[in-house]
Design brief:
Layout (H helix, E strand, L loop, with lengths): L1 H32 L3 H6 L1 H10 L36 E2 L13 E3 L1 E5 L10 E3 L4 E9 L3 E10 L2 E10 L11 E2 L4 E4 L14 E8 L8 E2 L8 E2 L2 H4 L5
Antiparallel strand pairs: 1-2, 2-11, 3-10, 4-9, 5-6, 5-8, 6-7, 7-10, 10-12
This protein binds zinc ion.
Length: 238
């Protein structure tokens, strides 16, 4: 009896083993119909990864230089605010759109005015580009001023935000700002916060990395050290 049992078990095991081989060979041939089993099994993962990565970044505005795309408006409705002193305008005490006027020369920046309804509310100013905050202090003719280091057209520039309420400027010197990051509020008009000027933003872009915060230069040639910010930041106005 025992020998018969051993024979039966042995035969059964052999049959089971043979069936396993048969089934596995069959499986291989089925998979092979669809190509290499290894690559077939791996394919779905790369495909799904590729699908999530492959979409191209949104096309940039073809009319703008690539480097200008990184600049944004410093204030909401920026395009409606450049009504008095654009970049490069020659100002005299007699012809100035701002009266009384105490400055004269070629305007090195762009002035962004405030609306009537903003006279007694805080108006936020934000960074127009990516770069470190170099300086925040009080300066003659400006009141509160912030200077930021940025890159335009592959070259270093410094960006001047003039007439800010210095106490509202949150970021510290050395901190890197991204386009649109809050800098501070405009100073109260005709106060020490603006050094007696109306409530507005003076935005200047000076070429190079040397700090120069002049609001006016006395010769037209002197303007060549400055960049007109408006084509870079006035377009959208947030
Ligand atoms: Zn100005």
């Amino acid at each position: 009896m025992k020998r018969r049992t051993i024979i039966v078990v042995s035969v059964s095991l052999f049959i089971v083993a043979a069936m396993c081989v048969f089934v596995s060979m069959n499986m291989t041939s089925i998979i092979s119909l669809n190509g290499n089993p290894a690559s077939q099994a791996a394919t779905p993962i790369p495909e799904s990864v590729a699908t999530s990565v492959s979409p191209a970044p949104p096309p940039s505005n073809e009319n703008d230089p690539i480097t200008a795309d990184a600049f944004v408006a410093p204030l909401a409705r920026a395009d409606e605010r450049t009504t008095k002193k654009p970049f490069g305008i020659y100002i005299t005490k007699a012809n100035s759109p701002v009266q009384p006027e105490r400055f004269s020369g070629y305007h090195t920046g762009t002035d962004f005015e405030t609306f009537l309804e903003e006279a007694s509310v805080d108006v936020s100013v934000s960074a127009i580009c990516s770069g470190k905050l170099l300086s925040k202090r009080t300066a003659s003719g400006y009141g509160g001023i912030v200077v930021q280091s940025c890159v335009y057209d592959g070259q270093p520039v410094t960006v001047i935000y003039g007439h800010l309420r210095l106490s509202s400027v949150q970021p510290g010197v050395g901190e890197t700002l991204q386009p649109g990051d809050y800098i501070g509020y405009l100073g109260t008009g005709y106060s020490t916060e603006t050094d007696g000027e109306r409530k507005h933003l003076h935005l200047g872009i000076h070429k190079g990395s040397v700090l120069n915060i002049l609001g006016y230069v006395q010769s037209k040639e002197g303007l060549s050290g400055w960049i007109d910010a408006c084509p870079l930041v006035c377009k959208s106005g947030n």
